[in-house]
Structures are given as structure tokens and as C-alpha cells.
Design goal:
Elements (H helix, E strand, L loop, with lengths): L6 E4 L6 E8 L2 E8 L2 E8 L3 H14 L8 E4 L5 E7 L4 E9 L8 E9 L3 H12 L2
Antiparallel strand pairs: 1-2, 2-3, 3-4, 5-6, 6-7, 7-8
Helix pairs in contact: 1-2
């Protein structure tokens, strides 16, 4: 059974935050925070909730790191996540919210960094939020 509690990823450097949720049917609230900045949107998941969950599952399974970038984008392209790891056990979530209804070029981007040891907990939170 899904939980409607938001999933919160706080940057280990204290400079950013990603909040996913609550979920409203096939829609998911997304919020990015940084110093003196906050942007939010509501994305349409349709069937994308399982592909987003798969991204977090892959990150959790590869907590020791991986080469390249693991990415996900919402069906309508209004929220994008790209993840990379370094040799020191840090994961960088590069995040982007795009609002094409305002302007095709309008976007907010930030990076949230976490320790790789937190990936399993993040996967569990994401699963509770997205799986019915």
C-alpha cells in the first residue's frame, strides 16, 4: 500500500533539497529548494511511476558506484533527474524542473548530493510513495 508522505532528499552540503510528493492519483508534486530559491510543479506520472522507482532501485543496488549517468525524465519532460557517483561514495542528483507553458526556455536546475549509504533508504521511501 502506498504512503502519501513526501520523499525528501536533503543535500549533504546543506545547499539543496528535493521533495517528491504527496502523490495525487497519477500526479506527483515535485519541489526543489536551494539558498533563496524554491520551485515546484506537479508532474503527470501515468505509468512512469514504475520507471522512476526503477531508477531508485538501480541506485540502491549500485550503492558502491557506477560509471556514467543514470537518468529519468517525466513523460511530459517537465521534471528530469540525472545521477552520477564519484569514487568517494557521493551521489549527485542533477535535477531540473521545466515549465513550457510559461516559456519554452524556462527552467530551474540544481544539484543535490548525498552519501551512497543513504540510497537504500531513499529507494524504500520512493517505493512507499509510488507503489499502490
Amino acid at each position: 500500500m502506498s504512503s502519501n508522505n513526501p520523499m525528501i532528499i536533503k543535500s549533504s552540503d546543506g545547499l539543496g533539497l528535493l521533495r517528491l510528493g504527496p502523490r495525487h492519483g497519477e500526479y506527483l508534486n515535485v519541489e526543489l529548494e536551494g539558498p533563496e530559491l524554491r520551485a515546484s510543479t506537479r508532474i503527470y506520472l501515468y505509468e512512469d511511476n514504475l520507471s522512476l522507482l526503477k531508477l531508485f532501485e538501480e541506485l540502491s543496488k549500485n550503492w558502491k558506484g557506477w560509471g556514467g549517468v543514470k537518468s529519468w525524465a517525466s513523460l511530459e519532460g517537465d521534471f528530469k533527474v540525472s545521477c552520477a557517483s564519484d569514487k568517494l561514495g557521493h551521489i549527485s542528483f542533477s535535477l531540473e524542473i521545466v515549465n513550457r507553458t510559461v516559456d519554452p526556455e524556462w527552467a530551474v536546475r540544481t544539484t543535490v548530493r548525498v552519501d551512497s549509504g543513504s540510497l537504500d533508504d531513499l529507494f524504500k521511501q520512493e517505493k512507499a510513495l509510488l507503489v499502490d
